[in-house]
Amino acid sequence: MSRSPSLPDRPHRDIDPELPDDERLEALRGHFEDIVDVNDQLEDQLDDAEERRKRLREKVDRVERENESLKSSSLYIATVEDIMDNDEVVVKQHGNNQEVLTDVSPRIAEEVEPGDRVAVNDSFAIQTILNAETDARAQSMEITEKPAVGYEDIGGIDEQVREVREAVEQPLTDPEIFDEVGIEPPSGVLLYGPPGTGKTMLAKAVANKTDATFIKMAGSELVRKFIGEGSRLVRDLFEMAREREPAIIFIDEIDAIATTRSESKTSGDAEVQRTMMQLLSEMDGFEARGEIRIIAATNRFDMLDRAILRPGRFDRLIEVPEPDRDGREQILEIHTRGMNVNDAVDFADLADDTTGYSGAEIESLATEAGMFAIRNEREEITHQDFVDAIEKIEDDDSSEVVASAGYFYQ
Ligand SMILES: Nc1ncnc2c1ncn2[C@@H]1O[C@H](COP(=O)(O)OP(=O)(O)OP(=O)(O)O)[C@@H](O)[C@H]1O
């Protein structure tokens, strides 16, 4: 180990005050030169010390990095299946699905719960519980064992319901029929149309009807939230579906990962491209008559890369439009089913007054009408409450337009 250099001696001269001025001046000049000399030496030593400090810092950084990588390379991801007495737990390792009985460190024993995603070391002892932030899968996927949506909750799109049942439900419940006829069911179904028209509801309703696990992932999250992780998340998504068969994978906003390639070739584009390639290869790899069905949705059909629409991929397209007059009436009836609505409320009339409303907007109209009744201290909702609610929604909409116009013209 190198030792720090010793400090130079402090310059010292006895100057006789009796000396003649010129000699004293000469002596003082000599003293000044000694001081400058020592100062130079100290400066050199300081530079050396800085240099040494920098080298040590680099060494520490390198060792820290090595330490980190040693730690992380020995950790594997697993899911806690069961908790036994004596702080022992059963975990299932991801990837190979191996189940092991293992220990959990007393430090985190209290916190572990079945279903937690955890990091285990080489000997399977649980090291950490992956919290929501590190658990990208939990954040980006919505998993529902049995979504609480039935076909009877969807209004105005009967034809689309029929098509989805044929393309997604039947291959799950009746795979033999496809064998007998000798055709392959559609690989993937793409629902397209304006926002809030019931695309997600359709996918949930099929999952409910077939007792399949509903696994939803938003395309925008795949590319925005976890940059660099998109293709891994797609792999995880299919793995998760395989673990929970029968399953319905629902990819919302598929346009986020499958837009027509732009001219610019930024690294962001390359990442999106990789995510989409991973999705296509997963789809190419799975059995069309198997227990996993895949549905995607988009509001931007015009922007889609046609590569995803080829046979064997999203080869069944179903348009989900805004509801027509009868559709709006049906949706109003659905969303007021559980509400205390006066008999004189005329849904047909309200359907006439809500041209251009989506299903989601009709749902908020029903809630808004209920708010008017509450404000007026009534328990029953009247026709006028709906009329007032329409007026309020339209006023809000036009002030939004004014606000956004103000924004653009600033
Ligand atoms: N056809 C419909 N029948 C009944 N309710 C509907 C219908 N469409 C939309 N809704 C209501 O609007 C809500 C949102 O609908 P949903 O999420 O299915 O729309 P989406 O088409 O998937 O929209 P987005 O494209 O914005 O994801 C639903 O929870 C439901 O309450």
From TrEMBL:
Keywords: ATP-binding, Chaperone, Coiled coil, Cytoplasm, Nucleotide-binding, Proteasome. ATP binds at residues 196-201, 335. GO terms for biological process: proteasomal protein catabolic process; protein unfolding. Residues 185-324 form the AAA+ ATPase domain. It is found in: Cytoplasm. GO terms for molecular function: ATP binding; ATP hydrolysis activity. Its main location: cytoplasm. Homohexamer. The hexameric complex has a two-ring architecture resembling a top hat that caps the 20S proteasome core at one or both ends. Upon ATP-binding, the C-terminus of PAN interacts with the alpha-rings of the proteasome core by binding to the intersubunit pockets. This is Proteasome-activating nucleotidase.
